[in-house]
Structure formats: structure tokens, C-alpha cells
Amino acid sequence: MENVVSITNVKKEYTLGKTKVHALNGVNLEVMQKDFMCIIGPSGSGKTTLLNLIGCLDAPTSGEVNLFGKYNVSTLNDKQATLLRRDHIGFIFQTFNLIPVLNVYENIEFPLIIQGVDKADRKKRVMELIADVGLQEFIKHKPDELSGGQRQRIAVARALVTNPKLVLADEPTANLDKENGRIIMEIMKKLNEEHGVTFIFSTHDQRVMEEGRRTVVLSDGMVESDKRI
Ligand SMILES: Nc1ncnc2c1ncn2[C@@H]1O[C@H](COP(=O)(O)OP(=O)(O)OP(=O)(O)O)[C@@H](O)[C@H]1O
Ligand SMILES: [Mg+2]
User: Among 24, 47, 94, 218, which residue has the most ligand 1 atoms within 8 Å of its CB, making it the best to mutate?
Assistant: First the structure.
């Protein structure tokens, strides 16, 4: 199995006025291709900070974050980080982050337009993903005409439409009810099992934790435990 993320002795400090916050305190973690990994831990333990570093949205204060065995996040310039995110990483956010003026089809198509994929290929790929997440009946709907669960399904499809190697999801079910949370997890699991996409997600939800095939517990910015089931 290929190594997707390699984190070596990573520290992240934020400066707030005169005080320093140690968000991550020496994290070591290897994420392998096809992992379906859940990050849990109390509020403030560093889950979002860690996901942001893996997603090249931020750089560590010290230590190394290496992606796909060849990219050291600290040495990438803005353009390189943008391209790496665009082509290899999918993001699913707690608040969905859809474009309100675009319909379901257009929201999912958007990353492919940015990549410069031609129209016929875009259509094929978007329709596949719409079917994967079960939104065929809602292609022309705008996000505000849909439920929270349906909106998050658009976000999942948008994160996956570019065929990323890695998908990062920060509390993807936090704004969903139980049933919609379950549906989102089922879709993610299916895409992981059938397409080998690596998923790293954080959660506070016991039911979502149980879906992880690997659970990493963070505590005060350190890995407290790391178990595969
Ligand atoms: N931009 C920032 N500036 C200053 N401090 C920050 C910043 N982002 C996070 N922190 C601090 O870093 C620590 C870790 O925060 P982080 O958001 O990673 O926690 P979390 O585990 O995601 O928490 P939650 O479960 O509440 O989402 C916290 O003490 C937080 O206050
Ligand atoms: Mg968080």
C-alpha cells in the first residue's frame, strides 16, 4: 500500500497577542492509501489544525508534512499548494460551502471547470457522481431548495468529482440529523471501498466514530492512541 500522508514530529503554534497556543505538540502519523480514518478528541485537541496542515491550507511551525510520498507541505509556494489541492485533495466542510447561485449539477461541475476538463468529459463525470450520491431528481435545484443532508451529498460529490487520492472532511455530519449523517457516512464508505479513495474525517459523533476503520485520538495536540479495527 502506498503512503498518502506522512507526518513527522509536527508542531503548530498560533500566536494570540502575547500568548502562544500549542495546537499540535509533536504529531507522528502515517496514513496509507485506502485508509478510512477517523480523528477524534476533545474540542481544542487539534483536529481541525491537523486537517488544515494535511490539506495544505496551513504550514507546520516545525516538523514535516509529506503528501503522496513526494510533496513537503512546508516547501510549497502558494501556487504549488493550490495545484496540489485542486488535483489531488477533496474537501468536505461542516457547513457544506456550496455556491448558492449554482444548481446541483453546476456545483459539482465547478472543480472540473477550474481544472480545464472539456464539457463532454465533465458531463460524464458529474452524472456519475450525481448517481453515486442519489441526487438524480435534483439536478436543477439550487442548494437553498434542498435539505441539509442533500446539500452535504452535493458537497461529497463535488469533493470526489476530480478523482482525488485523498478526501479530508472536518466534522462532515455535524450539521445533519441522525439519518442524513448515516447516509453521508454510507456514501463515503462506499467510495472508499469501491474506488480506493483515502478518507480522513473528524467527528464528535459516536455513530460516525464507529464507521472509522482506523481511529486516531488526539489529546492536547498529541496522538493519544491510534487503532485499526
Ligand atoms: N487561527 C488560530 N489562531 C489562534 N489559535 C487557534 C487558531 N486555530 C486554532 N487555534 C487553537 O488551537 C487549538 C486547536 O484548535 P483546533 O481548531 O484544531 O481544535 P479542534 O480539535 O478542531 O476543536 P473542535 O472540536 O472544537 O473543532 C485550540 O486551542 C484553538 O483555540
Ligand atoms: Mg475543529
Answer: 47
